[in-house]
Amino acid sequence: MQNKIVPYTNTDDEKLFALIEQGDERAFTQAYERYHKLLYVLAYRYLMSPDMAEDAVQHVFTRLWEFRSELRVGISLKNYLFTMTKNYVLNLIRNENSAIAKNYEMAQAASPYEDNLIENLEKKELMSSFYKAVDMLPAQKREICLMKVQEELTNQEIAERMNLSINTIKTHYSEALKLLRIHLSKMLIIVVFTTLMTVLSVHLIK
């Protein structure tokens, strides 16, 4: 009997790095897929060059793999990768590339925006997954869900618009949430999934 392949989509960073440290290539691939885009955005912000930003990301992940047994992530794999990316950029600046140095100075001047940039990117991806899941709902449940989330209508307002009882609206939305849990759990890591479902559930009582 073949061994079952364990997916790492829902694996937290601490466990993921422990697996990488042991030489698990699938764990490394998951880390790459999870953080490639975020690191690219970070590198591009300083380098203002798609090719150089991609080179930075490849350098960071290559180093992570080659020196996996010597590295210690500590608190957060995500923060560790961000630090490695910034250090790579700083090394480029030490090579006296004036254009890169100028870009770095401009980025540093707006450093408070950096966290928002990453946060907004994560939110964008989160909502993209949400709307993909909503599109999978039956027509009436999809319509109710969108009125709840996009228009922020109450059960009473939706009932009046659709000429249905409030209890019917509540039932449809509750069933929609159950279906969304199934769809979203396949798309998102567990922490993000739980957060989103908590937010959506608040609308059930309105």
Tag the structure with descriptive keywords.
206 residues, mainly alpha, Rna Polymerase Sigma Factor, Chain: A, Arc Repressor Mutant, subunit A, 2 domains, 10 helices, 75% helix, 0% strand, elongated, transcription
Question: How would you describe the overall organization of this protein?
Answer:
With 206 residues, the protein is mainly alpha-helical. The chain folds into two domains: 13-110, RNA polymerase sigma factor, region 2, helix turn helix motif (Rna Polymerase Sigma Factor, Chain: A, Orthogonal Bundle); 116-205, Winged helix-like DNA-binding domain superfamily/Winged helix DNA-binding domain (Arc Repressor Mutant, subunit A, Orthogonal Bundle). Helices cover 75% and strands 0% of the residues. It contains ten helices and no strands. Helix 2 (25-47) crosses helix 4 (77-94). The longest helix is centred in the middle third of the chain and has 24 residues, at 112-135. It is elongated and about 70 Å long. The N and C termini lie far apart (51 Å).
